[in-house]
Amino acid sequence: MTDTQLAAAMQAGRDSAEHAATLGAQLYIGGDMGIANTTSAAALACALLKHTPQQLAGPGTGLDANGVQHKADVIARALELHAAHLSEPLEILRRLGGFEIAALAGAYISCAQQGIAVLVDGYITTAAALLAVRIQPGVADWMLYAHRSPSPAIG
Predict the structure, then answer these.
(1) Is-contact 28 17, C-beta < 8 A?
(2) Where do the domains of the chain lie, and which CATH numbers do they carry?
(3) Model pLDDT for residues 96-134, shown as the tens digit of each residue
(4) How does the average pLDDT of the chain come out, rounded?
(5) Residue 111, H or E segment
């Protein structure tokens, strides 16, 4: 995504968190549609955690072994293509993430700034949480994790 698209997606997340704050929310629960997002989430996790796609690519919503291998291959190509630009969390997000992950990361940062706890539940939201913490480490203090996944990246 472009820098402008990244900023807009993160702002959409911030707007969501700010709206929740105006309603008096004490807990923010973000989510995603889960359509092909586990590939982006795994790519982000690989870049941030310095793991290989073979370590972190999982079946998502039901891939067989060949599908998981294909996903790992796609992630490996993306990491290779962008390798020279994967040193900063925002650039990793811009190059490998999706709009929904950027919005979640923006929402999580905003929630922490406003004192709203965040419930992280799922693979995609966990990738967004990792990004938010890498962007603003203090965000970690506001996160509660509620998901134990068979996915290799967050299991």
Answers:
(1) yes
(2) 3-145 (3.40.50.10210)
(3) 999 999 999 999 999 999 999 999 998 899 999 999 999
(4) 93
(5) helix 99-114
